[in-house]
Amino acid sequence: MAHKRLKGVRKARLSKIKVKTKHDKREDKSDRKKKKNAPVEAIVGEAPAPAEQEQGGGRKGPNQQGGRTMNKKEARAQASLEKMHRNLYSAGERILLVGEGNFSFTDALCKHLRSGAGVYATCLDSEAELRQKYPDAPACRKAFEALDGTCLTGVDATRLHKVKEFKGAFRKIVFNFPHMGGGEKDVDKSVAQHRQMLAAFFASAAKCLDPEHDAYVHVALKTGEPYKSWKVVQTAHAAAPELQLLTAVPFMASAWDGYAHRRTAGFSERHSLSGNEELAKGAKVFVFKKRKQSGDDESE
Length: 300
Fold this sequence. Notes:
Elements: H1 22-37, H2 40-44, E1 64-65, E2 68-69, H3 72-86, E3 95-98, H4 104-113, E4 119-123, H5 127-133, H6 137-145, E5 150-153, E6 172-176, H7 187-206, E7 215-222, H8 232-239, E8 244-250, E9 283-290
Parallel strand pairs: 3-4, 3-6, 4-5, 6-7
Antiparallel strand pairs: 1-2, 7-9, 8-9
Helix pairs in contact: 4-6, 7-8
């Protein structure tokens, strides 16, 4: 017989189904009543601690997007965008960064280039204002200055050409997230003010680009309003016709180790978001190119 081949294997035993009596049914009804009135924790047990909870199929790790763990395809796409952003910069170029806040982008850039030689980071704030608004600025500054980077305070991004040493000196000029920080409530007035500020910046920056090489101006802006209404491309072309839009790439905060976005008004635990949460809706780097020209007009 077939069952003889299963020698040594215990036969499965079927458990008997117990038929409920009237007494059993009364007990079940009583138990259900007790469970209904019992607290949730007594029935399902305590909820796991947040650190033990998983979202999107796994714990939070380096490959995160929108609060969930990315799959391999998404991780490759993000890595590609990060590389695209980093590749905008090369070692050996003279780069001017304006309107810096806590200097964390400058620090990350110098680390990426493995040198700060030729990197000039500037901000409009004075030394005292800088320390008051951005408590983390001194550490960032110390780090990139140790890599031979240069830091200058009190520099107006709309009057760069007034600095004699800046005229015709740079291959790249970078203005990440320009904002006046005035808190203007009138939206139309605020838009007009920011267009005016950007126009003055483009006109001044164009005079500080190296005339002997192709040179570039980078402006990073958040997506959506009111930034869309600033019309950065049209503003650049009107203020400095020699600047032509080359491309626009996503601003990838994750591409820069240690970068922490900061508002123009400064950082506050009460009013500012930690990390780079304010960039969660997306941001772009607009890249404008000024071609190498002979006999460039460098007059003011």
